[in-house]
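Open question from group meeting: does this chain pack into something compact, or does most of it stay loose? Before anyone orders reagents, we agreed to write out a predicted structure and look at it together. Recording both the input and the output here so the notebook holds the full record.
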Amino acid sequence: MRRWGPVMEVQAFRRWFAATLAMSVALQMLEVIIGWSVYSHQRSALDLGWIGLAEFLPLFVLALPAGHLADRFPRRYVLAAANLLGVVIGVTLALITAAGVHAAAPYLACAVGAGVTMAIGQPAARAMPPTLVGRALIPSAMTLRAFAAQGAGIIGPALGGLVYGFSPAAVYLLAAGSCLLASLAALRIGPGQAPVGADARAGGGDRDSAPAGATATPTAAADLGSVLEGLRFVRATPMILGAILLDLLAVLFGGAVALLPIFAAHILHVGVVGLGVLRAGPAIGAVIAAVWLTRRPILRRAGRRLLVVVAAFGACMVVFGLSRNVELSFLALAVSGFVDFFSMNIRGTTVALATPDLLRGRVGAVETVFVSASNQLGAFESGLSASLVGTVPAVVGGGCVTVLIALGWIRLFPALHRVDAMNEIEPVPVRGLPTADDVVPAAGERVPAGGGVITSPGPTVP
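Structure tokens returned:
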């Protein structure tokens, strides 16, 4: 594990990484194969959009309460429960496929279930890495968090497309098995232990055995204000708001993933196996970027680099939309994944370091809503645009809009543009946020390092 750096020497983080990778692989397989199954039966670009919307709606409704849940209860249990739901969804899809069902409605219902799995599991998963390692290792942990998602983007689509050629039902069973492994790995996550030399101020606490805000006392009862605390914090912090909004708009307009079945079937003529390869293209580029960043981390001018790579992502989408050559199309997708990984690394590290741990679950829920909106709602936007103006104009136009967004962010969010060294970012002070010095734990309850039990409905962002 040393080749991955000191962060992978932390046992709790390794188990978290395994759980997250397995969950992401399963969800990638489900997303790709549900889309291909529906399109192969219905031949409708708009149906691809409906699938994206079906996955997004539960995320929009449930992610903020799920973030509150992740701040009140052990996060590993929340993550394990979400993956057990994924097992049920995978088995259900296998039964539907084996029965020869071609109607879109059952697949859309299962897409809603997959969205529920993401809504519950992702806020907890996103909040955990900073609590399992020392502060000095948080940037590396964020890189590997993004790597897990992108590695799954290679494994899931490629494996799903390959297995689909032999047995469509087997793909869904494989996804169910992957969710089961993720659930078991999540349950084995123990307290993090900061490696020697790490900053003890913000690492090593048993935050996921007793996460920030977890208490059995009646004063911790959830209310709407506490659930929305993460949203208020993001809105009041321009650096974080700019980072999250940038991801939303860039992928919402610039993403072309939802339309890949159309490109594979009618423009590039490569079939379902080719679809898996094309879908893996961005993830392959992202893995290359991850290896690059583990050896040459971003040290300076992070904000400026963020806007440059977002503009480059938009340019890649323009090239992909205009290409009629499968090799060039794959290269454009791979480069888009390469530059997008830089963007994810900068955004993820910035948000993680600027957020107090007592709010990480709720801020992670806001991130989940925005990221999922950019992916799943972006899929709906892509399908709708393609049905109205055509597939190629939708992709090319979206890429151009993404470039313009990156340029506009310089003026709209100067605080984000000015971010220099990410390891110098400190948690943003929040009025009313309790610390270890002023928290009185419940009887028999241990106060974790760096924070404590919330004894009021929640902090108030000024």
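Observations to bring back to the group:
Residues 192-207, 209-222, 435-462 have pLDDT under 50 and may be disordered.
The longest helix spans residues 11-42.
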